[in-house]
Design a protein that fits this description.
Blueprint lengths: L4 H19 L11 H8 L10 H12 L21 H13 L10 H18 L6 E5 L2 H18 L5 H4 L8 E5 L4 H9 L7 E3 L9 H11 L4 E6 L11 H10 L3 E5 L12 H5 L8 E5 H4 L7 E5 L2 H6 L30 H34 L5 E3 L7 E6 L5 H15 L5 E5 L2 E7 L7 H32 L1
Bound molecules: pyridoxal-5'-phosphate.
The site of pyridoxal-5'-phosphate has 13 residues, from helix 6.
Length: 479
């Protein structure tokens, strides 16, 4: 192994990357390899000795190729998967090149300072209280865990109980109320924190918003107990958002902590058009979890945890080892999150924020919402097609009717859409029904992509109807 290998491997990697990106529009929007094929090309016994690095890189590129899902394709609408801005991708390559560990300031002053800058910018575009503390974590699930760790510590500390030194056994019982559509990431975090027993799922309306009367009744019943409430800013199915300002006021009147899961929906706060309509008062919550790798379109990983009370944040993360040189005048990334060694995941976030600026960020958010409405409009009124949600954000829930009944037919249409490789959408379950869910969150998706995908989806629907009628007729003839 020689340092000169960088000279050949990095240009080769750049060539491979460009070839992949240039070919993206022509790829089927799904993986086409079986696991066995992937294993055959990439597996086998670990070699006894070294192999030529250039050949290894080539083998990786060829071996994974058909097992990759082209999520950057303009017609990929699966799960909640953002694309990647070119500048963020380039910054991510450099992040790997610089290979900074960012435990404390003196191991990477650049990381510590860029984290401070991005924290200020995020607080600014989300309109959060100036003193809000920010941690850059792997993903929103980690952000939920961190925020709820702080919430747990804080509500118990207010009752004279220090969870860091006294643990959970014998602690005052914390009451936990969550939006009835709360994402599994929040539930998992609560469970990991020992708060999984007795989570109360609040009744929601058909846009996934907590019903005020249900909240009032639940809060009345809590009394003086320590309280954590988890609201939702962007339901994965409907895109629905709680009435967050009111929610914050009610939870605070009851002495509780309000955590908001805004994995993607938080970014509505960065749009001057959407903010007053959808997230008015969002700044009155106590903690917020979001992702840059979703709507800011940075590469993975880019979770962000934000906490209004920075003293509470620090108090919940007892620290650590004497060997760490932590001068008080500097930011030390390790103080704000659970990880000790980690990559400088903030550089791509800085590049995205710096290059887009306020209006560029708002344009992406507004553009995706426009695309979502356009998709819904293309499908609305077509025979056997129903849009189930009010498309206020970037999610569209569709249900199809056909020979096998709505559930079965919707599943078959989604499978046909996925199999054709002309677009990709997830099959989901919502209120006990099978639905097809479209997520519009990629900066690169154009109106033409939306139109092409809608045409393809309708063609799948008709093809499945025709096949189903044929089957029904055949079955009738056979009887
Ligand atoms: C509402 C919501 N919360 C939390 C998450 C979890 O985010 P991550 O996968 O980045 O951990 C998601 C993922 O889609 C989500 O939609």
């Amino acid at each position: 192994m020689t340092k000169l290998e960088f000279e050949t491997l990095l240009p080769a990697a750049a060539d491979h990357a460009l070839a992949y990106l240039r070919g993206l529009p022509d790829r089927p929007v799904r993986a086409t390899a079986t696991d066995a094929e992937l294993r055959q090309f990439l597996g086998g016994r670990l070699p006894d000795g070294p192999s030529d690095p250039e050949q290894v890189l080539q083998q990786l590129v060829t071996g994974v190729d058909r097992g990759l899902v082209p999520t950057g394709h303009g017609e990929y609408f699966g799960y909640v998967v953002g694309g990647t801005l070119p500048v963020a991708m380039a910054a991510d390559w450099l992040t790997a090149t610089w290979d900074q560990n960012c435990i404390v300031h003196d191991i990477s002053p650049a990381t510590a300072v860029v984290e401070e800058i991005c924290a200020e910018w995020l607080i600014d575009i989300f309109g959060l209280p100036r003193a809000t503390s920010v941690a850059f974590v792997p993903a929103c699930t980690h952000a939920e865990l961190l925020c709820l760790t702080v919430a747990r510590h804080h509500v118990l500390a207010a009752r004279g109980w220090d969870v860091a030194t006294q643990g959970m056994q014998g602690a005052p019982e914390i009451r936990v109320l969550v939006n009835g559509a709360t994402h599994a990431a929040v539930i998992r975090s609560l469970q990991v924190l020992g708060l999984g027993g007795g989570i109360h799922h609040l009744e929601i309306d058909d846009q996934s918003r907590i019903v005020p009367a249900a909240l009032r009744a639940a809060l009345d019943e809590v009394g003086d107990a320590p309280l954590i409430v988890c609201g939702l800013v962007g339901d994965i199915n409907t895109g629905g958002i709680d009435v967050v300002g009111d929610l914050a006021d009610r939870v605070h009147d009851a002495g509780g902590w309000l955590h908001l899961d805004g994995a993607f929906g938080m970014w509505a706060a960065a749009s001057p058009t959407l903010r007053p309509q959808l997230v008015d008062g969002i700044e009155r919550a106590d903690s917020w979890a979001t992702d840059a790798h979703k709507w800011l379109n940075t590469p993975y990983d880019g979770g962000v945890a934000m906490i209004a009370d920075r003293d509470a944040h620090l108090a919940a993360l007892p620290l650590l080892a004497e060997y760490l040189n932590m001068q008080p005048e500097h930011r030390h990334p390790v103080e704000w999150g659970m990880e000790v060694s980690r990559r400088s995941r903030v550089f791509p976030i800085w590049a995205a924020l710096r290059s887009l600026g306020r209006s560029g960020i708002a344009d992406i958010i507004d553009g995706c919402c426009r695309n979502a409405r356009r998709f819904a409009d293309r499908l609305t009124g077509q025979p056997g097609v129903e849009i189930l949600n009010e498309v206020t954000l970037n999610q569209v829930l569709v249900r199809f009717d056909g020979p096998g009944g709505r559930d079965e037919h919707t599943r078959l249409v989604a499978e046909e859409f996925q199999a054709r490789g002309e677009g990709w959408a997830a099959i989901s379950r919502w209120n006990g029904r099978i639905v097809l869910r479209l997520c519009l969150i990629n900066w690169a998706t154009t109106a033409a992509d939306v139109d092409a995908a809608a045409t393809s989806l309708l063609a799948c629907h008709r093809a499945v109807v025709t096949a189903g009628n044929g089957t029904a007729a055949d079955a009738g003839a056979a009887r």
